[in-house]
Design brief:
The structure holds two protein chains of two kinds. By secondary structure, chain A is mainly α. Chain A is built from five helices and two strands, in the order βαααααβ. Chain B is α+β, with helices and mostly antiparallel strands. The chains are: A mainly alpha, B alpha+beta.
Chain lengths: ~70, ~160
């Protein structure tokens, strides 16, 4: 699964640490999601979308490898 | 919300303070057969079987209490240290904890399977004694190591 967390974060000019506090996870979790090493839960995905004021589907996209 | 079966974060430190000294003391007492006389006592035995296969039920058993004390402290300390919430507990850390637990069970039984083939009689008794505590120990080592990797600067972009 791909995500635009880093892009959205840059648009809004907030750091990983600030975003981590706002969605109540550790900064390492934000880092792992941006690096594609962690797929967040639905709840966390919805929280991120709400903070960036975008739809979840704008923030996260399925890839071909997700269907295997 | 979901139940995660974890203790509050404050128990983590208490767990560490119990677990590590107890493991060291336990190894010391095993290796040097150290059993201080003042810890000799009696415990109610539900079922007892000695090395000559004499079996008895519901008797008071004379024993050195050090093993029992250290064993219980290792379990309590290890559980508290391994299963207390992290300072910044979140779903990613819970995933790492679960993966570490799976890994620890595989490694534990892998080691045990090999030991079954190569250790016999009293040597295997030693393996069994260690194996009482290695699932917790392997889990704790792997979990702490994984968390340390996250904070390692080389992991960052």
């Amino acid at each position: 699964m791909k995500n635009n967390i880093k892009v959205e974060r840059a648009k809004q000019n907030i750091t990983q640490a600030e975003l981590a506090i706002r969605v109540e996870v550790s900064r390492q979790t934000i880092n792992a999601m941006e690096a594609g090493k962690y797929v967040p839960s639905t709840v966390l995905a919805l929280k991120l979308a709400k903070i960036f004021k975008v739809e979840v589907s704008e923030l996260f996209q399925l890839e071909a490898s997700d269907w295997k | 919300m979901q139940t995660h079966f974890l203790f509050p974060n404050r128990y983590k430190r208490i767990g560490a303070l119990i677990f590590f000294p107890t493991i060291i003391l336990g190894l010391f007492s095993l290796i040097f057969n150290w059993e201080p006389d003042w810890l000799n006592g009696k415990l109610p035995g539900l079922f007892t079987s000695d090395i000559f296969s004499n079996k008895s039920t519901f008797t008071m058993v004379e024993t050195n209490l050090l093993n029992e004390i250290l064993g219980l402290l290792t379990i309590v300390g290890g559980i508290l240290f391994g299963f207390s919430k992290e300072n910044e507990e979140d779903e990613f850390i819970r995933q790492i904890r679960t993966e570490s637990l799976v890994w620890a069970i595989y490694v534990n039984y892998g080691v045990l399977a090999i030991a079954m083939l190569f250790f016999f009689d009293f040597a295997f008794l030693w393996v069994m004694i260690f194996n009482l505590f290695t699932p917790l120990l392997f889990f704790i080592i792997r979990f702490r190591w994984s968390l340390a990797q996250l904070k390692n600067p080389s992991y960052e972009e």
